[in-house]
Amino acid sequence: MRATTIHAPFEIRVEDVPDPKVQQPGDAVVRVLRACICGSDLWAYRGDSARQPGQRIGHEFLGVVEEAGADVAAFAPGDLVVAPFVWSDGTCDYCAEGLQTSCPQGGFWGSAGHDGGQGEAVRVPFADGTLVKLPSAAASDDRLLTALLALSDVLGTGHHAAVGAGVTEGSTVAVVGDGAVGLCGVLAARRLGAERIIALGRHEARTGIARTFGATDVVAARGDEAVAAVRDLTGGHGAHAVIEAVGTEQSMRTAVGIARDGGAVGYVGVPHGSGTGLDLGVMFARNIALRGGVAPVRAYIPELLPDVLDGTIDPSPVFDVSVGLEGVPDGYRAMDQRTALKVLVTP
Amino acid sequence: MRATTIHAPFEIRVEDVPDPKVQQPGDAVVRVLRACICGSDLWAYRGDSARQPGQRIGHEFLGVVEEAGADVAAFAPGDLVVAPFVWSDGTCDYCAEGLQTSCPQGGFWGSAGHDGGQGEAVRVPFADGTLVKLPSAAASDDRLLTALLALSDVLGTGHHAAVGAGVTEGSTVAVVGDGAVGLCGVLAARRLGAERIIALGRHEARTGIARTFGATDVVAARGDEAVAAVRDLTGGHGAHAVIEAVGTEQSMRTAVGIARDGGAVGYVGVPHGSGTGLDLGVMFARNIALRGGVAPVRAYIPELLPDVLDGTIDPSPVFDVSVGLEGVPDGYRAMDQRTALKVLVTP
């Protein structure tokens, strides 16, 4: 089959690779209908995260089960399924409590020796624990299929940030990061009942989507100016709940700076850089909590899926550019140069 | 009156100072019956926190109202009261939501121009918002009076850490720090229903108190060894809830290291040192939350007071040395040299 590989920083290829097959009785093979490129794929693309030459890449996909191992009970060939960005056994204590990202048998798509999402098909370990079934009718609804793809990562990750930030009915929320995750954070905050949602961003197409998703205010500033602007908008206090969806020291510093005393920063931006950006003295004096991390998306799909299916929330606008599989290298370039927000891949 | 002052690192004196008087109509003057020395006073004592020469010190006290301003509605002369370690107006949004430490009109005892707790009497601003009445019968019960003094800081601070760490019925808790706050964290965790409480400490008198307070296990190690020991005790997983009651980079690193994936570190140790000790990459991968800060003790006194009064919890064993007011300088030396756990002051 054809699949995306990464050979060195900025060197993404689409190549012939071995067809995936069931190797363990719990495996399934899924033919990919939709995949996409994630902001976090850019850390590998830019060389900030090491990869072995030729390693697969891509961790978001949905598709149709093509083959199921003897122990797979929940899925049969022909089933439409979505995969969260990590696989998990579905049976351990962590899976039982909804923290599938800590499953000792879990792993990330595209890790060495495993298929990535940006290819024609994927071998899925622990299919019963990992995959979630979608209504087969969705396969013929292009817009819906794209919206459902967001369940594999960005929607659940934005939701994790909103939960970590403690968004509740009536809260004031601020969102740092205007990428797909930040925008899904806006959507998740509105869904959880936030009354006011302040989106930080300077890219008009993105802040436009933020407004569509429920942002009530947009702050087109960064750093100290952004902190001052959010404080102005909130009577000097800051936001109860802050979603941090970037992962740099500056974004974390901004996130703490715009949080209200007693509030929380829900962080889902993959941390990069040598420091944390956290001033613990400030957080201590103001009782600002930090809660988040890699999102256990698998746990959230059952909760979010009905709202995507019935149109209560529609994350599909985060996908602004669409390519075929051979167009994936162009997609990386577009996301790296921020000419695309999030690239949809239709193999 | 006589009161404790600090003139330079390691230079604590007891001196004649002006008698406190009602200055604002909301003030009360409280004659101190019991005060004490806090581990955090040692940062000033050691010169780690700057003080103006001659500044008062001490932030924990209980006593009898001697004089009340015209606007004081809740207290009258003769009332037995306990003061939390910050005063607060009792009327702002933060006070209303139980975060009195963020009250814009609040302040710390012993800050420049204000009385400290380690003296014969204290002028209390915003008496109605700050003080909590105690049953007058307690004044004649020496053990109870000492236990009630813990409500001014260490008991509420330990409780704040336990709440921040997410202690619930049945949790496994680990406590970093064998000072009075860490020990009160043990007591608070047991009160909140923790099933297993692992106290880290190497000082036998202190770990003995920890066991009395409810610790089920003691780990007499530090750093990587402590992490390994707690993991051994918890099937490799770590503790759901970690109380951090020290505030150094090493203690924070240990706290994160012994937390179970998906757990939380409730931190109340005043941060000191140049870094945070936090590895955000580890916290992100394992979804470990950080929640705590300066404890809004005023909010917790009404909840904790009945349990202290009826003996359900008795924090009095944290006071292991008692001095009169003139003995306060000796008390600082004893705490600095760790020959005393927490020094009670009876003016």
Characterization of the model:
Two copies of one chain form a homodimer. Chain A has 347 residues and is of the alpha/beta class. The first copy, chain A, has two domains: 2-153 and 296-346, Medium-chain alcohol dehydrogenases, catalytic domain (Quinone Oxidoreductase, Chain A, domain 1, Alpha-Beta Complex); 157-292, 3-Layer(aba) Sandwich (Rossmann fold). Chain A has twelve helices and 18 strands. In chain A, the strands form four sheets. In chain A, strands 3, 5, 6, 9, 10, 17 and 18 form a seven-stranded mixed β-sheet that branches. Chain A has a six-stranded parallel β-sheet with strand order 13-12-11-14-15-16, sandwiched between helices. In chain A, strands 2-1-4 form a three-stranded antiparallel β-sheet, with helices on one face. In chain A, strand 14, helix 9 and strand 15 (259-267) form a beta-alpha-beta unit. Chain A is globular. The model of chain A has no long low-confidence stretch (mean pLDDT 97). The interface between A and B is medium-sized, with 32 and 32 residues.
